[in-house]
Amino acid sequence: MLIEKSPQTAVQQQKRPLSIWLRIVTNLTFWVLIAIIAGIVLGSYAPAAAVKMEIIGKTFIDIIKLFIAPIIFLTIVLGISGIGDLKKVGKIGLKSLLYFEVVSTFSLAIGILMAVLLKPGNIDKSKLQVGDASKYTSGAAKEFNWMEFFMSNLTLQVLLVAIIVGIILNYSKHREKAVTGLGRLSKIVFLGLKYVMYLAPLGAFGGMAYTVGKFGLHTLVPLAKLMGTVYLTMGIFIFLVLGGIMKYYKMSIWKFIKYIKEELLLVLGTSSSESALPSIMQKLEKMGCSKSVVGLVIPTGYSFNLDGTSIYLSMSVIFLAQLYGVELSAWEMLSIIGILMITSKGAAGVTGSGFIVLASTLTALHKIPVEGLAFLLGVDKFMSEARALTNIIGNGVATIVIAKSEKEFNPVAEGEEQEWSNEDAEIKEGKFAGIN
């Protein structure tokens, strides 16, 4: 028996390294990572050429955006039609908004607390680079308008239309026929997305090359303390706060992050959480969250559950106060949280909107010079990655929490025709949730 087994073992040992390398070079994550590194190198050594790569990153994001509206629409309509119980749909929506408000408020508070403790603004501002913040400060006094926010937010518009269509379909006698047709269309859309995602390395390369080439890594040095504080705070929020929430529901934040690693690398390269919105919805469904929960929570979360943005905004206000030597009382800090709870909702999906929100907040306080935003312009692009990564992880956790609490979390059964990764297999076996 030993003689028979030895050749097989030798063959297996020879094949194993080849299979590992084959898995690496055929893994999209590997190529996205290589693209990010290539973008940093090009941006550092040939900034002029790197800036021209912006068109590649922008084009990829524009293509991905074409899929966002149909995917949200189809997912929500099919999800609501599948539930059948409209009271449950309303319950999921209300529970989601309540969860968003509680967690977003907590993220605002943790941003202020960490800034007060670590004091990133206690530096010499005369050594900082000054940008032109006039286009943001000029509109600072303008009040937040919910109608304008809705009219400029395609995600929310599609969400509303999809909910209405889903409700109408529930009462229609042609419901089954419509659901069958929409189901086929959904498969076609997701198949198209699958092929577009093969371009992800190009998008990550273009986005990272432009950022490094345009702003330069040297701009990070003067504001290294702020950068470090922001990334540390985001890390604490993800692993302690979100990790604690996941643990309560017997889930692992580490395994969830590993499961969505491709989406996280894409967000890191493009500095946009929108670039991963369609694929994160697909991943969460594969993981076991019901279509209705994914369809309702993710699109709403992209507008109302911006944990990373909330941390950055509250921390930036305290940073500027420290930079100008402005003392803020406990009441004024609570006021900052209150103001940002409303204005931060307008920071979704529009480039530069975060600065407009900051300008509005500083104007409302009447204590910190709005012109201080000019000091943040040079380094803001490098912190957008942290914001986007925290936002997408936060929305993923929110979806899992709502699905688990509503008993709408069911790992997909074996035999379903889907391409599963190792992590997907772990989920189906129950390992993802830490179940032995």
Principal-axes geometry comes out as globular
Say how many strands there are: 0
Terminal residue distance: 34 Å
The CATH architecture comes to Orthogonal Bundle
CATH topology: Proton glutamate symport protein
Approximate helicity band: over 70%
The rounded Rg comes to 23 Å
Low-confidence stretches: 1-15, 413-436
Major pleated sheet: none
Order of helices and strands: HHHHHHHHHHHHHHHHHHHH
Q: Which descriptors apply to this entry?
A:
single chain, mainly alpha, cell membrane, membrane, Proton glutamate symport protein, 436 residues, disordered C terminus, disordered N terminus, Na-dicarboxylate_symporter_CS, Na:dicarbo_symporter_sf
What does this structure look like?
One of its GO terms (molecular function) is malate:proton symporter activity. It is a multi-pass membrane protein. By secondary structure, the protein is mainly alpha-helical. The protein has one domain (2-429): Proton glutamate symport protein. The chain has 20 helices and no strands. It has helices at 2-25, 28-45, 47-51, 54-83, 86-118, 134-137, 146-151, 154-171, 175-196, 200-215, 224-248, 253-259, 261-270, 277-287, 291-304, 307-323, 330-343, 353-365, 377-405, 422-429. The protein is globular and about 70 Å long. The two termini are 34 Å apart. Residues 1-15 and 413-436 have low confidence and may be disordered.
